[in-house]
Amino acid sequence: MSNVETMSINAIRILSADAIQKANSGHPGLPLGCASAAYELWANHLNHNPADPDWKNRDRFVLSGGHGSMLLYSLLHLFGYGNLSKEDLMNFRQLGSKTPGHPEYGHTVGVEATTGPLGAGMGMAVGMAIAESHLASVFNKDNYPVVDHYTYVLGGDGCMMEGISSEAFSLAGTLGLSKLIVLYDSNQISIEGSTDIAFTEDVQKRMEAFHFQTITVEDGNDLGAIARAIEEAKADTERPSFITIKTQIGFGCPAKQGKASAHGEPLGADNITALKENLGWPSTEPFFVPEEVYSHYKKLAEEKAETEAAWNVMFAAYCEEYPEMETLWNAYHDPDGTEKAIEACADFWKKPEKADATRNISGQILNRVKNYIPNLIGGSADLAPSNKTNMSEVGDYSKEDRSGRNMHFGVRELGMTAIGNGMLLHGGLRTYIATFFVFSDYTKPMARLASLMGIPQTFVFTHDSIGVGEDGPTHEPIEQLAMLRAMPNFHVFRPCDETETEAAWYSALTSKKTPTGLVLTRQNLTPMPGSSKEALKGGYVIDDCEGTPDIILIASGSEVELSVKAKELLSDRKVRVVSMPCMDLFEEQTEEYKESVLPKAVRKRVAVEALSDFGWGKYVGLDGAYVTMTGFGASGPAGQLFDHFGFTAERVAEVAKSL
After folding, report:
1. In this predicted model, what pLDDT tens digit does every residue of 571-627 receive, in sequence order?
2. Alpha carbons 405 and 395: distance in angstroms, whole number
3. What domains, with CATH codes, occur in the chain?
4. Would residue 241 be called left, alpha or beta, if left means φ above 0 and alpha means ψ between -120 and 50 degrees?
5. Which of 650, 614, 386 has its CA nearest to residue 481?
6. Are 136 and 166 in contact (CB under 8 A)?
7. CA distance 358 to 225
8. Are 536 and 443 a contacting pair, CB within 8 Å?
């Protein structure tokens, strides 16, 4: 290792330690321990261009151990990404800074995914590797490997303890994602002490069982060994690779090295001084980096730019030889592509013909748009026949066929959602994932990350209420709708018929920064005469009266028809029925529009929904009432359950009269 390399690695350590100390908050252990491995990867193996962070064929790097964010910020600063300045490092963890506590996608240039919940980055990296292989199957031609890059992910013991990593890696091994390379920071320390207190399995044997190539680097500071491991990983074209790198948490700090106390607290001023002395750092000034180190990183960045320049030459020749592929490439990467595609789909807005389950209608819509949106890819957690999420005649994605567009995620809802997020983050694809609505509980942590990152993931949630019937309360969602409605930047769409289901899909597929959950029925729903594209506003008047109403019934999904029937029983009163398929979209409308639908002067209101009443208060008010679920469901035929729990037109009318 040359002196400048040693200094360049230690610069990562010093900047990280100083930033955490200045913030009086952070996690120095990982940056100190992993600096050598990160440097070797970024300097000598990772294809990236700091001058063009969005280069389509760059290698992806995900820091799954997001608490070690200063490792990533130091690398981005030293390589010259997006003018991430030394002042930005000095503002680590401060309000409004470019360097938040955990990496945030879309906030800091060069961050590929928002990480923090341990293991999430592992799942998203699997998704990125899937996206790379699928796009390669679509675009690559002889002598033109225009999609040809690796996905690297760095995480530690905590990432490997979380179940999401096992879900994701099990699928990655099954699919033989050979361009996925996992760097495992194995320091055998967690917050509470040695990992032996809770984590004694042989991780490498587990990864071998998942069909990964496993490699071990005994010394996390041996650049040669790390380099050989990465090249060995890249040489295996049949399996993903898992590189165990044995490190010491807090390396270089005499009082903290190898101890749990190095994980999540500043080193302290005296220990910072000792760290710099121990590493032979030429200055005790905070955030000092020698010019020769900056010059070294600048040279590396210029070499990285040459790699992209060579790709650009190849891509230009590719476009000249295959102009139809250039057109397709542009379509795949057009941010307005799905909206244009739906406009081209003449039968997207199809007139309802008969009663049908919205899950069936959803499946029909999916198959209507699939040929217009060639980059639409997705699947279910082993429930495609029930979720109706299989696209006909487009094939199944597999180890043998990367071109297939139907994903089989297996019974892995949490892993599926992270993988779906990773596919979307990669770019070039539009994705959807699916399961039963009650199992949205298993998707929630990664759905939350989709909302936080502002990526338009589509969730198909079927079997939306007690209408599930005979499967009983374990499979009948009650509180899930309220849970998802409570999440910022997430649209929950529960349509009442075919027209509203079309609106739901339109909203989901044209969204640019907001995930959408489509909450769909198992039982048939009758087409409603008043349903319309007004559903795109989230709430609208579906059945009105003359003049100002006395009572407003507000419902979603299967309970809209129920409310319209209840109105017929209230013929001596002026009743308005409002369909509220998406509260979130309704809240985005103007105050004037909301007032036109729900006049403040009309205080007699009833919310009707076969789920929890939580969240309806803002529309019902103190003078209103509810026809909702107050407990869990039961096992029995759906029709009997609706009667048993009081979801009848007669009961809705009675509650309305009681006001």
Report:
1. 999 999 999 999 999 999 999 999 999 999 999 999 999 999 999 999 999 999 999
2. 6
3. 3-305 (3.40.50.970), 337-525 (3.40.50.970), 538-658 (3.40.50.920)
4. beta
5. 614
6. no
7. 56
8. no
Do 174 and 136 form a contact (C-beta atoms < 8 A)?
Answer: no
pLDDT of residue 365: 98
pTM, full prediction:
0.98
The structure tokens listed for 364 are 């029909």
Cβ–Cβ < 8 Å for 617, 596:
no
* Opening angle at CA 95, ends 90 and 100, nearest 5: 65
User: For residues 585, 586, 587 and 592, what is the CA-based torsion angle, rounded to 10 degrees?
Assistant: 130
Looking at residue 457, its amino acid is Q
Cβ 606 vs Cβ 553: under 8 Å: yes
**C-alpha torsion sign, points 276, 282, 288, 294:** negative
pLDDT in tens, 446-499: 999 999 999 999 999 999 999 999 999 999 999 999 999 999 999 999 999 999
Instruction: Map tokens 């981005």 to a residue.
Output: 76
- As beta bridge partners, residue 432 has 378, 458
Closest CA to 57 of 427, 382, 420: 427
Q: What would you measure as the largest C-alpha separation in the chain, in angstroms? A: 90
Beta-bridge mates of residue 433: 379, 459
Angle between helices 291-321 and 3-23 (to 10 degrees): 100
Structure tokens at 193: 């002490």
Per cent of the chain over pLDDT 90 is: 99
* Tokens standing for residue 554: 């507000």
Q: Which of 168, 125, 115, 63 is nearest to 414 (CA)?
A: 168
Average pLDDT over residues 293-298: 98
Other C-beta atoms closer than 10 Å to the C-beta of 172 total: 31
Torsion, CA 318, CA 319, CA 324, CA 325, rounded to 10: 60
Tell me if 606 sits within 8 A of 627, measured CB to CB.
Answer: yes
Tokens of 593: 């529009």
> Does the annotation mark 413 as catalytic?
yes
Dihedral class, residue 549 (left if φ above 0, else alpha if ψ from -120 to 50, else beta): beta
- Encoding tokens for residue 516? 């959408």
Rounded to whole angstroms, the Cα distance separating 634 from 643 reads: 12
DSSP output for 451-477:
HHHT---EEEEES-SGGGGGG-GGGS-
Which tokens in the block code for residue 631?
A: 């407990």
Total number of residues shown for the chain: 659
CA 249, 254, 256, 259 torsion-angle sign? positive
Name the active-site residue from 162, 413, 502, 561: 413
Rounded Cα distance between 413 and 167, Å, is 9
| Phi and psi angles of residue 224, each rounded to the nearest 5 degrees, phi first | -65, -45
1, pLDDT greater than 90 = no
